[in-house]
Known about the structure:
The protein is an all-beta fold. Helices cover 2% and strands 51% of the residues. The strands form four sheets. Strands 9-8-7-10-11 form a five-stranded antiparallel sheet. A five-stranded antiparallel sheet has the order 14-13-12-15-16, with no helix packed on it.
Amino acid sequence: MATYFSNDFRSGLKIMFESEPYAVESSEFVKPGKGQAFARVKMRRLLTGKLIEKTFKSTDSAEGADVVDMNLTYLYNDGEFWHFMNNETFEQLAADSKAVGDNAKWLLDQAECIVTLWNGQPISVTPPNFVELEIVDTDPGLKGDTAGTGGKPATLTTGAVVKVPLFVQIGEVIKVDTRSGEYVSRVK
């Protein structure tokens, strides 16, 4: 893998730090009037998703991480693993609950997901940015009731709970942003 110096760190770059893969979120190169230049870097640990801030000297370097993002189709969950398939090679891959995490509530059959692999093993699963799900449980909205908070919780087919407007009813299909978990619109 390539070696990157701290002044080469850019958003999106994946590097090895303390023997684990990290993704650089932001990097600010600082050249003080006196002393050595340094880079203030925010990076996300790919195995856990934890964000850390680290300062690197201008002479520090890091190896590029052998991390691959693949577009795979979600097939099914067998209770222990979530199974994905590569549409080009028809190769199947199983991801455990550590890799899928909270994103399990956004996975629909045949959905295109981004699976991040490190050393051939899935370390994270990113669902599509938007999914369309049916509401299976919510309080009925009363006509003319607009003085309240403007929202109510609704349970979706995957078990996710989302705050929706008062006019949305059981059985309707809604569009949800998986990055924030927020209601976007009704689907006609």
